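Put briefly, the fold is written as integer tokens. One such record reads:
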Amino acid sequence: MNRRVLFSLSAAGGAVLIAMGASTTPVSGQVGMGTIVGHVKYLGPTPVNPVIRMGADPRCNKLYVGKRPTSQTFVVAADGGMANVFANVEGSFPNAPAPAAAVLIDQKDCMYVPRVVGARTGQMLQVKNGDITGHNVHSLSMARNDFNISQPTPGMVFEYKLKGGEMLHIKCDLHAWMNSYVGIVDNPYFAVTGTDGSFTIANVPAGKQTIRVWHEVMGPQTQTVDVQAGKMTTVDFTYMPGQKPAARAVRELIVPADVELVKIITWRAQ
């Protein structure tokens, strides 16, 4: 049986892959499940979210009379806990069917709710217009999750079966401040941080696992943890001012069963 190997490289570089002879322990050979509990914090002054100018749509503007609505780009608690960070376990796992229940994004008070959500490849996404004004649901996809539809009538629901895995950006062309992000993965091991910056991923196969977190501005971070059966493993991530997200692309290599080691040689374009 072939094995899948994920590797990343800078968008400005390239890579050569050479098959050699050694192996890694497959997850499928490990026994037991554990729980990963993580925290994501922002160290330093919280960035100021821009004020949303809703005057372009009087029906949206009417909802916020006397208020100063701001973008929810950075939602940071007093102790630095960051909300709306997508967390997932990377790697290949035994196939598990996508949930029958759909993932729901509502358009409420001229905002997408929730701002960040997780979903499985093959799962149904529903986007509802819960407002009294019209909206547009427009995906910016790199993995064939392409749609661009209008919802002029309150109560309309758009359904779409998610395809390739990615961090899918959804926007509204009628209201430039409306953004939502769907973390689409092919395994059930993911979560989104709450208002305290914490997340929990249960029933993770025991062994070395790579945890990835992603924020819409701060980008991704990864750490490797040792998940132990029947135990809780903790992991902490920190963002801080001045950090720049890594410009990298993720590629998948199919490795023949008789190849035990893959050597990746990368270079940067001049």
The first strand starts at residue 3 and ends at 10. The two ends are 39 Å apart (CA to CA). Confidence is low (pLDDT under 50) at residues 1-30, 247-255, 265-270. Helices lie at 58-62.
